[in-house]
Every structure is written in C-alpha cells, then in structure tokens.
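User: Hey, my collaborator sent me this sequence without any context and asked if I could get a structure. I don't really work with proteins. Can you help?
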Amino acid sequence: MGKGNEIMKKLKPYVGVIILQFGNAGFGIVAKAALNQGSSNYTFSVYRNLFAACLLTPFAIVLERKIRPRMTLSVFFKIIPVIGQNMFYAGLKYSSATFTAAMCNLLPALTFLIAWILRVEKVNLKSVHSHAKIMGTLVTVGGAMIMTLISGPIIGLPWTHKAQHASTNPNDQENPVKGAIMITVGCLGYAMFYTVQAITLKSYPAGLSLTAMICSLGALFGTVLTFVAERANTSVWALGWDAKLLAYVYGGVVSSGITYYLSGVIMKEKGPVFVTAFNPLSMVIVAIMSSFIFAEQMTVGKVFGATVIVIGLYLVIWGKNKDLKEIELIQKQQSKAEAKPSTNEAKADDHMNGSEKITGANSV
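Assistant: No problem. I've predicted the 3D structure and written it out in structure-token form, which is a compact way to encode the shape of the chain:
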C-alpha cells in the first residue's frame, strides 16, 4: 500500500497537467466559435473571470478561512492576468484555432526564459539536465510548428473516409501576421503571470483564495478596460443562449477556475516550466479528438509533429526529474549535517556526565 501511494503521488502532477490540456483543447474550440459569432475579446475576458470568481469565491471563503494570509500590495500587483487573456482572444479572432494553438506553444519557451531570468527555474549551463530542459523546450515548440505548417500525405483512417471539410466562415477575417503578434504578446503575458504566480504561492499559500482573487481582479480590471475600448458599442455586453454564453461559462469554470487552481497546485511541486511544457499536448489532443468528432483527416505532418512533441516533452520532464532528485539529495545531506552536531553534543554531554560521576566517586 505504501509503495502504491508513493507511485500515485508521483503520478498526480502528470495526470493533472494532462487534464489541463484536455480542458484547454476544448476551450480553444468553443472560444473560436464564440468569437466568430461576434463576441468581443474584451468582454470575453470579463465574463470568463466573472463566472470563475462566482464559482470559486464561496469555496475559498469556507475551505481556506483558517489558512488564508492577509492580502498585501506586493501580492495584489502580481495576480492580474488581463493582458495575456485579451491579447490571446484578439489573436484568436484574427487567426484559426489551429494556428492559435500552434502559436501558444511559444508559452513553454517564454516561461522557461522568464523563470530563468527571475531565478525561479534552476539552470546550470554545465549540467546535462539543464541542456535537456532547454533542448526539450525547443524541440517541443518545433514539433508544434511542424504539426501546423507541414501537412503531407493524408493518412486514411477508417472513420474519416467520408469526411466533409467545413467551409470557412465568411465573417472570419483572418490576418495571420496580426494574429501571430497578438498571440505572442499574449503568451508573454501568460508566461510572466505563471512565473510570478509560482513566486506568489510561496508567500500566499492559500491557492483557492488566490485563484478566486485572480479571477475577481481580472473581471474588475477587464470591465474598466472594456468600457474604455468598447465605449461606443454597448451591445458587446449582451448575453444569450448561444455559443458565446457556453464559451464564457466553460472558460470561467474550466479555463480560469479549475486551470488556475490546478496549475497553482502543480507549480508548488514542479514549478511553472513543468506546467507550461505540456501545453503542446493540447494540439495533439485536438488533432486526435477532431478525427473522431469532426472526421478531420490526419496527415503525416501532424503525426510527425506529434511524435516530435512527445520527444521534447520527455526531455523536459527528464531534466526536471533529475533536478528534483538533486534537490532532494541536497536536502537530505543538509538534514544529516544538521543532525550530526546535535548527536555530537549529546555524546559530549554523556561524556561529561560520566566524568562527573567518576570524579564524584573518587572524591568519596
């Protein structure tokens, strides 16, 4: 039982990030549908954070009332994810969901770079482990680009032989260059947010409360930004029983609420680079699920890109695991070193007590 529990404990972070990627893959699809129906990228961010805040706040108040520390200004200014979200939605509006998913694979590399600069991520250029993390990140991004940019021959899958490709939405005016710039800025914002969140969790360990505050502040600041950017178009606030409402609720519950909290829990143990390094998996998940749900045809380029992604992820995970083992070894050595003086002191005390007894006996 003990060994089984230990294995499950080690597997939890990996299962968690895979669940996150399934959630992200679904969100990319519903978000694009909502934006195609005329949703504003500004109100999207507001409603997404608002739904998440409404869901999480009651749980945070009840479950973390005894462990929640006081909010400080330094923490306050570290938990506003509005920039990344708005730029991401703007980029998604000007590009396709697949292109956006591919561009978002810049996130692991940007997170690794920022975490390295802020010294959250340990990097030793002489270490093989660090080389593996750097190479793994680059390989993962490269694999994602291959999946998007290289098609190749179609692989004839039994369930896709009757595939009918959907026509392009006439209202969807794509601008890949503009979209790429916006998505890159959005990824940079998210990379900074993830890295700073990892730092913040060390001084503010109440993860659920932190997530609720992130979403609440995101909704508040997003509302102000929307009033400024969309002041001439009040119709963007309208809600109806359509894909837009589904995207807002899905984004709030899954992509903001569950994702922020779960990623925070995983980051406590594995760090921000580990969480974002799995982002390219969402492309693989989308490709596989689309082949079943939408009968989307698989190509050699997609399969090859997916294989490269898996190789890159393995390199990153291997490097992270080796780093963690080194840290554990150092901690054990430090614990032993701290225990030795106390043991020596105890022996010295025993020796002194014995000497006193002998001296007392001799004097008698």
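In plain terms: The chain is about 75% helix and 0% strand. You can pass these tokens on to your collaborator as they are.
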